[in-house]
Amino acid sequence: MVALVLLAPEILHPAGWSFLDGVDLIFHEAGHLMFMPFGETLYLMGGSLFQVLLPSVLAGVFFRRGEGVNAAVVLLWAAQNLGNVSVYIADAQERALPLLGDDPDHHDWWQILGGWNALPLCTTLGHMVWFLGVAVALLSVGVAYHAAWADEGTSRRSKRF
User: Fold this and answer.
1) pLDDT along the chain (161 residues), means of 10
2) Which of 48, 61, 72, 144 is most exposed, with minimal Cβ within 10 Å?
């Protein structure tokens, strides 16, 4: 898992489109629908929020069930989503990313940050979210090691009897 984080920076800073990005897009769009009743700002943020919250909640469920490896995998998925969201936020001023519908005025973070008169902060905010993604990726490594250590301890105890 450490090699995955250290040797595959594209997980946290995507340069192209992958299968997982398509899955993330489905949850992103679903997030808009789920957050629609809570006002325009949460509607706009809902896509990015849901695509990060879904794997984060799943990680918590797996961790509580004692399934540390599963928790680590979906935490890495959450980190990948934070990487994607960071790129999306950082793109708010330029709006160069391809969007569904091809209308650059539908860029969620351009609308959010523009409404807050904070567009010049898009790169800084994108970097902050990226660093959060790095922290979550490292947390996933810690969870995986904890799970491996716990499994090793369990197998040693079971061999004694």
Assistant:
1) 46 64 93 97 97 97 94 95 95 92 90 97 97 95 87 52 48
2) 61
Rounded to the nearest 5 percent, the helix, strand and coil shares of the chain are: 80, 0, 20
- Domain ranges (residues) in the chain: 17-160
**Residue 93 to residues 37, 44, 124: CA-CA distances in angstroms?**
27, 16, 12
- Please say whether the beta carbons of 34 and 18 come within 8 A: no
Helix axis angle, 40-64 to 68-90, nearest 10°? 160
CA distances from 88 to 84, 97, 140 (A): 6, 8, 23
Contact indicator for 77, 135 with CB cutoff of 8 Å: no
Q: Which residues contact 70 (CB under 8 A, 6 or more apart)?
A: 62
Interatomic CA distance for residues 57 and 51, integer angstroms: 11
Other CB atoms within a 10 A radius of the CB of residue 52 amount to: 26
**Structure confidence at residue 101 (pLDDT):** 82
**Residue 37 phi, psi dihedral angles, 5° rounding:** -65, -10
